[in-house]
Amino acid sequence: MDASEFRRRGKEMIDYVADYLENIRERQPFPDVTPGYLRNLIPDHAPEEGEKYEEVFKDIERVIMPGVTHWHSPQFHAYFPTANSYPGIVADILSDAIGCIGFTWASSPACTELEVVMMDWLGKMLNLPEQFLSSSGGPGGGVIQSTASEATLVALLSARTMFIRKHIGPGDDPHRENAVMTKFVAYCSDQAHSSVERAGLIGGVPMRMLETDSKGALRGETLQLAIQRDKAAGLIPFFVCATLGTTPSCAFDNVLEVGKYAMSFNFNPHKWLKVNFDCSAMWVKDSRLLSDAFEVDPLYLKHENQGKMPDYRHWHIPLGRRFRSLKLWFVLRLYGIKGLQESIRKDVMLAHEFEAYIKSDERFEIFGEVVMGLVCFRLKGSNELNEKLLKLINDDRRIHIVPSKVKDTYFLRLAICASRTTSQDVRLAWNVTREITNGLMSSLKQ
Amino acid sequence: MDASEFRRRGKEMIDYVADYLENIRERQPFPDVTPGYLRNLIPDHAPEEGEKYEEVFKDIERVIMPGVTHWHSPQFHAYFPTANSYPGIVADILSDAIGCIGFTWASSPACTELEVVMMDWLGKMLNLPEQFLSSSGGPGGGVIQSTASEATLVALLSARTMFIRKHIGPGDDPHRENAVMTKFVAYCSDQAHSSVERAGLIGGVPMRMLETDSKGALRGETLQLAIQRDKAAGLIPFFVCATLGTTPSCAFDNVLEVGKYAMSFNFNPHKWLKVNFDCSAMWVKDSRLLSDAFEVDPLYLKHENQGKMPDYRHWHIPLGRRFRSLKLWFVLRLYGIKGLQESIRKDVMLAHEFEAYIKSDERFEIFGEVVMGLVCFRLKGSNELNEKLLKLINDDRRIHIVPSKVKDTYFLRLAICASRTTSQDVRLAWNVTREITNGLMSSLKQ
């Protein structure tokens, strides 16, 4: 594909993408394929000679689309949203073309520097304490991680290193480090995301999943008791991860009780902020704690300007990194703060619309509270009944949702996921739910 | 930005990208900016109201481009290549638009299934043993990781779990796991990439960096002695990472001696195979060893078809993942195996052209052997002399290279990095090198 063919094919793809997204409502949100569907649709080895572009392009609808779960369909209500916006896509084309690997400042100064400033913009939008901002002139600042899983792991590993250093000298035998680690213990709530448990697994430290209150929130007293118990047993508590908006039910840990003074904060603009995946925003009050955990410094990555700007390779697990701040820059500028606020408020309002439908039907109950864009609901009755309802709704294929369970109560989760979702779509989701419930109830009476 | 504006702006960006890449030769490969250049060029906070697209677009040349290290400039010869191709960019636009998060099969079946088959295609192209392929019907298969750093870490963590399980039961106290780990020891060569040392740091296990032979290769005898010594000291050797093509000098560990039967293999199509970053290909003979290390299984991620196809979230550190196999599919089909072979052979030939220039001038010597697309060279003389030469070459700005050091010998590394590099560019690199050497030599005589 030479430049002139790229101009043609790239523009065709832009049109295909606009057509796909504008007409996504016509596609079934969850596909009908069964595992292994794709292998038989394409050859079992790569072609020797290059194929024509037309052949590849027509296979998008033949091979790919029948197996796509359309996350941006207004009828997709599963998990939490993943962001997708036209400005994000346009910025990503530029990022792909520049194609730099921004592991050090020198490997592409613009890549590092735009990220530093964008993380300040975003931090100011959230009213983060000054210490988290690079503009404060202190050791704090933000970094784009690929995923929240990685941000959590990085925070845990930094805390681990900090506590190892407290107990042994830097030149000690690594086996002694490991011996100290056998006393470490970390905490999260029993509602924390699976990636927090996994961070403990990877870091080789036990993660205590503490009981939450009736709203699914971790409380200060619970944490304090656990810490006291562990200290009494000779263990070293070194890390707490609090969650604002749990995946099962969007519960908020009580951070005022758990600890007012977090050393890091992470959220995903690639979820609700119109920045295409991946863009997970993490801030720390002291970036030296990150580089302490990760710094390895070969000559081929050294450059003259070390120390004056962050070398982000010391801030995360991968070495290579894309120019992801371009997406943030385009999105923040083209929507403006107000545009992003409006879009989030619209989704919250739609969630409350669905809540009102649920409350209007006495067969149903809301689980917990409707917070942000998530509605947790269930049929009054057994978990089994609700499992049946979930399966019938998803088998029907008009909408797609996933279940969850908190303290042995099984419920259905409807998240407002797509920027194109409207009141009509919410009404459709409700009509599907009610209609299927009617059928389920009458089948049970027979 | 509505759909009609996206059609217009997306197409303008396609043209901008084609213009950028076709005329990249006119841009200086390494920028002139100093750290902090960008902050003063843009506001210190996000705008309240959305801005016009024209404002954002014109800032690409004003704010971004002056600070870009142009990795795809034919005069960029630093690090190793990062891939960039028109088919890769077009495929990535589609991936962004679909915008699915493929953590489970159900979260987008096409995303998982195309990856399974593409990793088989790629594995067959490399003649990997059948056990590494999903088509073998066994527990092996491939997965796209974000970076080789993550692949190495995943392999190490899997080995760690496998050895922990050998020594304690699955229900044991996690603190006992940690106590067993204090005896673990891992190995790589002293030429291994910094990410291997880092994997040890993250995994909490000591990584022995074993001495290499005169060619920078790890030999079987060295490894065997280290293992014997560690076993005699009561330690448990559990992991070896061999490198084919080290970063300092493109040395190849002697894998026939180190161990014929690797359990995993990783290389980066996002380096030399025209697939834009990120796409790091990893194969394993037994994927159950990966999920053993990582599996955490909340209800909201369960689906009806678990076990029939991989849930890739168990194969790596992040939970979320982009639809990256689309890039592989477009690139493999549009270039064909022959097209990719030709492009790699061209780069190898260009490296030998530069080698010939170096050998034609008796002031210079080649360091090691010219393997693949990397030429390691130096002025006969002290390290200090070569450090001066490197600085002068990079300060001149016509080409950009990085240095390296093996066994206290400092040398310069010229890598063929860009698909647009030609014999003329290699001659330019040589002319710059020779001209600056002439200047350096005469300044030393004065």
From TrEMBL, chains A, B:
GO terms for molecular function: aromatic-L-amino-acid decarboxylase activity; pyridoxal phosphate binding. This is Aromatic-L-amino-acid decarboxylase. PROSITE patterns: DDC_GAD_HDC_YDC. It comes from the Eukaryota. One of its GO terms (cellular component) is cytoplasm. Its cofactor is pyridoxal 5'-phosphate. The keyword Transmembrane helix does not apply. Gene3D superfamilies: Aspartate Aminotransferase, domain 1, dopa decarboxylase, N-terminal domain, Type I PLP-dependent aspartate aminotransferase-like (Major domain). Its EC number is 4.1.1.28. Belongs to the group II decarboxylase family. Keywords: Catecholamine biosynthesis, Decarboxylase, Lyase, Pyridoxal phosphate. GO terms for biological process: amino acid metabolic process; carboxylic acid metabolic process; catecholamine biosynthetic process; serotonin biosynthetic process. Homodimer. It holds the Pfam family Pyridoxal_deC. The keyword Manganese does not apply. Transmembrane segments: none annotated.
